[in-house]
Specification:
Elements: H1 2-10, H2 13-27, H3 33-68, H4 73-107, H5 136-153, H6 156-180
Helix pairs in contact: 3-5, 3-6
Amino acid sequence: MNFRRLKKVFKEPFVRIVLTLAFCFSFYAILPESFLRGALTLSLILKGLLLFFIPFLIFSGTAMAFASLKNNGLWFIVTMMGIIITSNFLNLMFSGVVACYLLPQLAHLDHQAPLTVSEMVINPYFYCNFPKIFPNAWALVLGISSGILSTFFGMPKYMKFVQQVHRLTMGFMLKVFIPTL
């Protein structure tokens, strides 16, 4: 009975990631360099793929979410924008207070940690640079504006296209990116 529960716990993705990280941090010094280079190459490929797909995910997700708003959608959008603007303003004011009052108090400490030189520099086998079609901010603006427009004007063919883009990006995330992670 306990073995089954333990087996179920080890099947969880979070537990697997934590165990893998613990293994790598504990035994990185004895792992072969070829393994480290391969892991770094795989990590950089996944990063490139993620950076390529994120704008499509942002665009399709926000467009579908805003297109699904019906009756009080505009009121919801105005309220959320007000909350976001207020939050950003408060964050800016807080960082200003920290920069003006807290950092000068810490400046006299002037403690610098010595830099350590690493013996082994790990380079990947190759770099895989995927093109970035458009920035994330543009994807967000395009998704919000097209979602709002489709709320008011319908546009069923456009929404089918957005749903197809969303299906493809989520398929990549769920069937390729997350299992490889």
